[in-house]
Structure formats: structure tokens, C-alpha cells
Amino acid sequence: MMSKPAKKKSPERVQTKDTPTDACPAPPSEPPKRTCFHCVFAHWVQPGVSALFPNGWMSRLMCVNCDRSPGEMCEVWPASTCTNFRARRKPPVRLEEPAPPSDEIRYIALTQGKFAIVDAADYEWLSQYKWHLVAPGKLYAGRKEGGKTIYMHREIMQPPPGMMVDHIDGNGLHNRRANMRNCTNQQNMQNIHKRRSGASIYKGVYYDKRRHTWYARICHNGKNINLGTFPTEIEAARAYDRAARQLFGEFAHLNFPEEV
């Protein structure tokens, strides 16, 4: 009886001159977000003999801060995780700048899908920097330099020390020179739009629930000034506008600017 021929063992893969040494492909299916694959401490290294698959020649994911071997570099499985996990920061995404509506306006792409509006004359020198969205309660365009945030509107207007830059329309991303002016902190506060809280839609107008009337109030030099009570909300809003024009001039944010 003839014996069956023995199966040939597949030869182990050995590194040759043709073996790629710089390819570090990702796993075919991306692991969940909170895994070594997405950890800032894990990095793909050149293909070699894997500790997890001794018979394979493959790219390896090495961790420099694994809780199983603190202080030592070890190979980790992409789908595993540990207590030292720290997510990698995603690179900022900037959209393509749209076509401007006129030759006088340009857009500068920021992060998070936002754009800054600038004059065409300022576009060339501003666009040499990478600007990102800054949101300290209000949206602005900024960049990092020497560990500090440089704001685009201040870069354009160059206010004197102690002065601020006021956006006339209240939009911190509208950085055309015609929409900005240097001012003091107090003048800048006068142009703040009405907050969403409160019973009235108008700035400086409030409702007295006890008397069932509307009253107007304005703040000047840190003091509240009562402007009286009024039968309607609109009359109280117009009273605020009259006082604001008298006290703040061009920096006043009015309820009815079309009536000036």
C-alpha cells in the first residue's frame, strides 16, 4: 500500500530586500474608539516577528505606556485597551473657502467648518497663517504663537494697549475693517446684544409681574439707571434707545436702529 505523501509545511516568511520595511497597514476593520488602535501612546512600527503571532511577519502596534508593563515598550492588540488610554487628537479639518460675493470680500477657512470674513486687501497676509475657531463664549478667529492665542480682529486693528476691538454687528468672525472699531472696555460692553434670558425680546426692557407693567433700565459706569415704567413693551424699548444714544453714542446697541 502506498503511503500518502506528507504535506509540505509552508515556509516561514523571512525578510528579504523586497520585503517592505516602512508599510504599517491598519487592521482591516477599525476597532472601537476606546482601544489601543486609537490611543496616543500606541504607534505602528516596521514589520517584524510579532509577539502576539510568533509565526507571522507583520506590522506591530507598540505601546509606550501600557498598564501591564509600565516604563517598557510592549506590543498590544489593536482592539484591546487599558487604564492608561488617552484618545488621539483628530487633525483639524478646514473646508474649502467659498467664492466671495464681491471683489472686496474674502473668506478664510477656520476649523469646525467655520469661516472668517475679511477685506480682500488683508487676505494675502492673513492667509499665510493657519487660523482656527476660538470660542470663549463668543466665536472668534485665532492662531497660536509662543503659547498664546493671537486673535485675528486684534491683528488687523492693532488696538493701543488697554483698548479693545468692537465688532459693530456683533459677529466675532466678521473681521472687515468697516465692521470693527477700537474702543474701551466700557464702550465695548454697550454693544453687547440682549441675552436670551428675560421676559422681553428687547434690550434693557423688563416685565414687572406685580404691577403688570413694562419698565426700562440701563447700566452706565457700573450703575443701573431706571428709566421708568411703560404700558407697552415697545414704548419701554424706545425709552432705552433714547438713553443709550445719549450715553453711548455710536457704541449703543439699539432695539430699533432703523429709527435713528
TrEMBL record:
Molecular function terms, GO-annotated: DNA binding; DNA-binding transcription factor activity
Chain segments annotated as transmembrane: none
Chain segments carrying region Disordered: 1-29
Top-level lineage group: Bacteria
Keyword annotations: DNA-binding, Transcription, Transcription regulation
Keyword Transcription: yes
Domain AP2/ERF: 201-257
Alphabetized SMART domains for the sequence: AP2
Pfam family, one: HNH_3
Gene3D superfamilies referenced in this protein's UniProt entry, alphabetically: 3.90.75.20, AP2/ERF domain
Cell membrane recorded as keyword: no
Ranges of compositional bias, category Basic and acidic residues: 9-20
Protein name as it appears in the record: AP2 domain-containing protein
